[in-house]
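Let us practice reading a record.
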Amino acid sequence: MDEQNKQNNAPPETEPIERSAASPKAGEPRSDAERETNILKEQIAKLEKEKEEYLNGWKRAKADSINQQKDELRRMEEIMKFANESLIKDLLLILDSFELSILATKDPEAKKGIEIIYSQLEKILNKQGLEKIKSLGEMFDPSLHEAMLQEDSEKESGTILEEMVKGWKLNGKVIRPTKVKISK
C-alpha cells in the first residue's frame, strides 16, 4: 500500500494542455464579439473600396460630359463662323463691281461716293471675319493664289507681279483664292 499511497500522494504527471475549440490560437480573436468586429471591418473595407471605384467612375463620367459639352460648343462656334460663307461669297461679287465702278468712273464726286460705299461694305464684311489675301510682291502660294498668267521678269521666279482678282479669307479659311500673274 505504500506504493499505492506514494502514487496517490505523488504529484500528477503533467500532460500537455489541449486547446478546446473555444480557446483562440495565436492571432485569432478571443471572442465572438471580436470575430464579428473583424467581419464588420472587412465588410467596411470592401464597401470603402467599392465606394472609391464608384466615385472615380462618376468623376470620369462627369469629366467626359464636360469635355463633350466643350467639344459641342467648339463645333457650334465653328458652324457659326462659316454659316454666312455663301452670303459673303455673293457679296464679294458686289465688292468686285464697286471696284470696277471706281476704276471706270470719271466724275470725282461719284467716284468718291462709290469708294465710301465700298469701304463701308468692306468694313461690315471684315467684322464678320472676311480679310483680303495679300499677294502683290509676295511669293506664289498655291493654297492662297491661283496663277492665271506667267510673264518674264527681272524678279525672282514665282513672285506675284499683278493681282487680277482679289482673294479673300473668311476666318482664316480661303473662300476665294487671289487670281494672279507671276514671274517665270
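A brief commentary: The chain has three domains: 36-83, 84-128, 130-184.
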